[in-house]
Amino acid sequence: MSDEPILFEEVAAAAGKLGRVTLNVPGTLNSLTLEMVDLLQAQLEQWRERDDIGAIFIEGAGEKAFCAGGDVQALHVSATATPGGPCEYAESFFTREYRMNYTLHTYPKPIVCWGHGIVMGGGLGVMAGCSHRVVTEATRIAMPEVTIALFPDVGGSWFLNHMPGRSGHFLALTGASINAADAIYTGLADRFIASEHKEAVLAGLLQQQWTGDAQSNHGRVRHVLRPIAEENIGSCPAGQVEPHMGTIARLCDGDNVHQIIDNITAQQTDDPWLAKARDSLTHGSKLAALWIERQLFETRHASLREVFQAEIRLATNIVRHPEFAEGVRALLIDKDRNPAWQYRASREVPDEVLEGFFRAPWDDNPLADL
User: Fold this and answer.
1) Residues facing residue 12 across a β-bridge
2) pLDDT band at residue 1, thresholds of 50, 70 and 90?
3) Which of 244, 252, 287, 334 is the most buried (most CB within 10 A)?
């Protein structure tokens, strides 16, 4: 295997070509760097204009992860180098990552994402933007940003708000882990296919006669994936979100965000999934919980373009604030899991402090041209 961080291959099909993308840093669970974001953006733009590229298949190297997120440690270095900002690397990373996410969401050609293994943070941003999203028995999805004082970005403000009932809000506040069945139920994935059938999927894609008509090519991808997925229905693991929808609705039914946080953190439960979700919010940043809830509320009717413009505003303000650097330090740098959060309870956060995260930190939004 090459040591390039992303591998691009053009594979001849019965007619036309399949573009194959492999995130190729298994040692970091294929976590995205700014270089990888730029490489992917450039390749997507090139292939979009090529009539011979009929579809794209994107995967992660190794068996552990599709992509475990962005390179948070590099963001931490940027945030701590210039406290209060501007944090040049981190802000460039978020801006270009969100632009790449938007490109995926609006891409005319079919993109098949093989979402095998860990899919977290920035990895979920990539998968969510693809038009044909496949999950396997090993898929583990989470947006645990509350634990490091970030927020579910990379389009999370879009896809979490489009999930059934209050499930998106619950997952955003708690960072709860979900599997393949949950991904399909919440709309994050389209099909379950056991990982042993990956080569059959690729073989089927290479048997297609790709044309210059993107709509027809989407049909060809469905033609390949549908029968393989139908054979696999019985082997999909049991989900957690759908069976807990009643509980999620009750927990998220508060007069305000503080009451919702209280409901989740005070619950007495023997259910391991709910208990883990409770503990994650309990130990997470209460300031982050407030901006997570506010961001979802503010973008609930936003267009995809407006979502990414709102996300870059919030992300820029967060990376300039010490809460984020402290969260990353405690969880990923020193790994003492003992962050010194600025506020012990959500009710202690002054309204003006929260308000500051939703004010534009520059004259022109860097994603105004989306």
Assistant:
1) 17
2) low
3) 287
Annotated catalytic residue: which of 91, 153, 311, 323? 153
Q: Is the pLDDT of residue 2 over 90?
A: no
137 classed as catalytic: no
Marked catalytic residue, from 59, 145, 311, 326: 145
Residue 70 bears catalytic tag: yes
Average pLDDT estimate for 237-263? 98
For residue 9, give both structure tokens.
Answer: 């291959």
Express the helix, strand and coil content of the chain in percent, nearest 5 each. Answer: 50, 15, 35
* Residues in contact with 273: Cβ distance below 8 Å, sequence separation at least 6, in sequence order: 176, 177, 240, 244
What's the whole-number mean pLDDT along residues 160-176? 98
Catalytic pick among 19, 69, 121, 122: 122
3-class DSSP state of 179: coil
Q: What is the pLDDT of residues 57-75, one digit of tens each?
A: 999 999 999 999 999 999 9
187 carries an active-site annotation = no
- Closest Cα to residue 232, out of 114, 133, 134, 140? 134
Dihedral sign, Cα of residue 231, residue 233, residue 234, residue 236: positive
Of 16, 19, 54, 70, catalytic:
70
Per-domain boundaries in the chain? 6-356
Interatomic CA distance for residues 318 and 157, integer angstroms: 15
Token pair 């927020």: residue: 151
> Which has the closest alpha carbon to 285: 364, 196, 354?
354
| CATH no. of 6-356 | 3.90.226.10
Average of per-residue pLDDT values in the chain? 97
User: CA-to-CA distance for 7 and 60, rounded, in angstroms?
Assistant: 10
145 is catalytic: yes
Amino acid at 18: L
Q: Directed axis angle between helix 304-319 and helix 72-81, to 10°?
A: 50
Residues 280-306 have pLDDT tens digits of 999 999 999 999 999 999 999 999 999
Count CB atoms within 10 A of the CB of residue 122. 27
Give pLDDT tens digits for 106-151. 999 999 999 999 999 999 999 999 999 999 999 999 999 999 999 9
Give CA–CA dist 70/346, Å, rounded: 27
Strand pairing partners for 20? Answer: 9, 57
For residues 3 and 57, give the distance between their C-alpha atoms in angstroms, rounded to a whole number: 20
